[in-house]
Amino acid sequence: MKITVIGAGAWGTAMAMSAAAHPAGHQVCLWARDAVQAREMHDSRQNMRYLPGLAFAPGLQVVQGDALDAVADAELVIIGTPMAALREWLQRLQHLHAPVAWLCKGFEAGTGLMPHEVCAEVAPQLRCGALSGPSFAQEVARSQPSALVAASRDAGVRHTLVEALHSPSLRVYGNDDIVGVEVGGAVKNVMAIASGLCDGLELGLNARAALLTRGLAEMTRLGVALGARADTFMGLSGLGDLMLTATGDLSRNRKVGLLLASGMGLAQAVESLGHVAEGVYSARTVLARAQALGVDMPIAATVVDLLDGKVAPAQAVHRLMERDPKQER
Ligand SMILES: NC(=O)C1=CN([C@@H]2O[C@H](COP(=O)(O)OP(=O)(O)OC[C@H]3O[C@@H](n4cnc5c(N)ncnc54)[C@H](O)[C@@H]3O)[C@@H](O)[C@H]2O)C=CC1
Ligand SMILES: O=C(CO)COP(=O)(O)O
């Protein structure tokens, strides 16, 4: 199969590497917008900026220039950019016949739309879906065992994604609940910031378990209110990715929480990552959608106030602990 991945950050590159190492022998193009980075990757056969030391399989070709040329004969296109660039790319790719899947996890800043809602607005005729689930780029690029979920309402798109990417080191499960999968991917990033804060303040393992359990409840409440199935949140893109991102030190969102707990300001924390931390941009939109639906999300609300500088790290925790007792739901 011919596969083109747009965006050569950590995750786009890791997905391109995984596809190129697939036993079916796919031809994979990795399109990078930065000409210098593309040349460097082409010459060194690795992504020195985002995944140094991990060699590309021979089936991976780095391309630059007009992206529409790079997708022209692709049988599958994967958009590997952050959420902020999704709209622009869906607009550019709107006339493609091949299925298009995005990797970004978040709600669009400003509009508060989920990725598939952005697609419905700008490219309604596109055959599309989301790839999500617990998957640090470094581990997938090393072919360490991982599992993803391919979410689409179109069974043909799910089938193409499984056929293209399911391999001995990567299990890809299909799910038609794209709302649930995308809410899980967006909200777990916000909860990972809270978890990093909790661990940075050394509140203990009990506190972290409580935080993540209540975080999962918030995620599920919002998802169900938006039309998702509750059982999706017990799966890879819900509980699975929450566990990984909130406890795994490879997470950039978790790192933001740890850095804020250490006293660093938000701008410096974000700058020091060198990668996108989507929770920083999605937290407000997640909360705004919850508020519009009358869904209570106290942890997400606290993360927003923390990011806005309205509450200091230690106060944030007190605010959650001082809430009135309630029934567990
Ligand atoms: N890194 C990871 O382990 C995982 C990341 N994700 C999600 O994947 C998305 C991308 O994350 P990363 O690759 O880690 O980010 P990153 O920060 O490593 O790289 C982002 C890349 O996107 C490129 N980019 C930005 N705007 C662009 C545009 N308009 N056109 C083309 N390229 C553009 C940048 O040049 C950079 O190469 C995020 O939404 C993230 O939440 C999902 C699962 C795992
Ligand atoms: O989504 C991820 C793992 O599934 C990556 O999380 P971070 O963006 O927090 O690193």
UniProtKB/TrEMBL annotation:
Cellular location(s): Cytoplasm
GO biological process terms held by the UniProt record: carbohydrate metabolic process; glycerol-3-phosphate biosynthetic process; glycerol-3-phosphate catabolic process; glycerophospholipid metabolic process; phospholipid biosynthetic process
Catalytic reaction annotation: sn-glycerol 3-phosphate + NAD(+) = dihydroxyacetone phosphate + NADH + H(+); sn-glycerol 3-phosphate + NADP(+) = dihydroxyacetone phosphate + NADPH + H(+)
InterPro entries recorded: 6-PGluconate_DH-like_C_sf (IPR008927), 6PGD_dom2 (IPR013328), G3P_DH_NAD-dep (IPR006168), G3P_DH_NAD-dep_C (IPR006109), G3P_DH_NAD-dep_N (IPR011128), NAD(P)-bd_dom_sf (IPR036291)
Alphabetical list of SUPFAM superfamilies matching this protein: 6-phosphogluconate dehydrogenase C-terminal domain-like (SSF48179), NAD(P)-binding Rossmann-fold domains (SSF51735)
Residues that hold sn-glycerol 3-phosphate according to the record: 105, 133, 135, 188, 241, 251-253
Name of the top EC class for this enzyme: oxidoreductase
Residues that bind NADPH: 11, 33, 50, 105, 137, 252, 276, 278
HAMAP family membership: NAD_Glyc3P_dehydrog
Name of the protein in question: Glycerol-3-phosphate dehydrogenase [NAD(P)+]
